[in-house]
Write a structure and sequence with these properties.
This protein is of the alpha/beta class. It has ten helices and eight strands. It has two domains: 2-214, TIM Barrel (Alpha-Beta Barrel); 216-245, no CATH class. Strand 1 (2-3), helix 1 (7-16) and strand 2 (20-23) form a beta-alpha-beta unit. Helix 1 (7-16) crosses helix 3. The radius of gyration is 20 Å and the shape is globular.
Length: 245
């Protein structure tokens, strides 16, 4: 699984053979320049997911439900999940939370909207958690296990485990019948997810511990733009081959 937020990226990832694409609310800090995921709106999520959907032929498409689109009440969650599912072109929604969200997950699944759960570090709760910290240590181990059991029992078809110790993620993966998708949760999950901009080195020097940067496109883009500026300034671009006659 990888994230995508626009049509050309989605098309490239789909053609490359990625199994699942997530339009995450990471859209906020990664694409829209927000400080975190909290300001992201339903309309922004739908707008970007529709663009991604138009670039796909085979990958499963999941849309994140943003902060305060499902926490207020089950009726609110059903209404917004239905709207996002209907208008975005996604084939599933993702929401954060474990035991506290089990009734919400069940209600959405009962509407025939597939739900991907997300437990461990849940970015929409960073202020309560005191920042981006590894979850599932000490007394929190049992809580995270209960979260995993709860989302499966509620009908989630998949669960993302974020920033969870490797051994605990392994135990949860072996315990559940639904797939686990890890991000900062070690190699023993059923699958892995990364933000595409992290994988491609498009976010500058910031790199979480769990990220492997496969390319540094920031350097490539910087070089290309500087070459363009030099050629325009010197008058070598456009040349005759880029001109009409």
């Amino acid at each position: 699984m990888l994230t995508a937020y626009d049509h050309p990226t989605a098309r490239i990832l789909d053609n490359a053979g990625i199994d699942t694409i997530l339009v995450g609310d990471s859209l906020g800090p990664v694409v829209l320049g927000y400080p975190n995921t909290i300001p992201v709106t339903i309309d922004e999520m739908i707008h970007h997911t529709r663009a991604v959907a138009r670039g796909l032929k085979r990958a499963l498409l999941i849309i994140d439900m943003p902060f305060m689109s499902y926490q207020e009440s089950i009726e609110q969650a059903k209404r917004n999940a239905g709207r996002m599912f209907k208008e975005s072109g996604a084939e599933a929604v993702k929401l954060e939370g474990g035991v506290t969200m089990k009734d919400t997950i069940k209600a959405i699944v009962d509407m025939d909207v597939p739900v991907c759960a997300h437990i461990g570090l849940t970015p929409q709760s960073i202020h309560r958690m005191g920042g981006y910290k590894v979850q599932g240590k000490g007394k929190d181990v049992e809580r995270l296990i209960e979260d995993a059991k709860a989302v499966e029992a509620a009908g989630a078809f998949m669960v993302v485990l974020e920033c969870v110790p490797r051994q605990l993620a392994k135990e949860i993966t072996e315990m559940l019948s639904i797939p686990t998708i890890g991000i900062g949760a070690g190699p023993d999950c059923d699958g892995q997810v990364l933000v595409i901009h992290d994988l491609l080195g498009l976010l500058g020097d910031f790199r979480p511990k769990f990220v492997k940067q496969y390319r540094n496109l920031t350097e490539d883009i910087d070089k290309a733009v500087k070459e363009y500026i030099d050629e325009v300034t010197s008058g070598t671009f456009p040349d005759d081959s880029q001109s009409f006659h």
